[in-house]
Amino acid sequence: TIRNRDTMEQERVKIADLESYIENSLEF
């Protein structure tokens, strides 16, 4: 369903944000 695809995309974005956030915090 479209809603399911939306949820999966949102989860993917959350994971990507988490990864970039961790990378930024590791730099300092």
TrEMBL record:
User: Which first-to-last residue range defines the signal peptide?
Assistant: none
Question: Nucleotide-binding among the record's keywords?
Answer: yes
| Keywords, alphabetical | Aminoacyl-tRNA synthetase, ATP-binding, Cytoplasm, Ligase, Nucleotide-binding
List the InterPro entries hit by this protein, alphabetically: Anticodon-bd (IPR004154), Anticodon-bd_dom_sf (IPR036621)
**Which terms under GO biological process does the entry name?**
tRNA aminoacylation for protein translation
In alphabetical order, the GO MF annotations are: aminoacyl-tRNA ligase activity; ATP binding
Does this UniProt record's set of keywords contain Ligase? yes
Residues annotated as domain Anticodon-binding: 1-24
Q: Under what name is this protein listed?
A: Anticodon-binding domain-containing protein
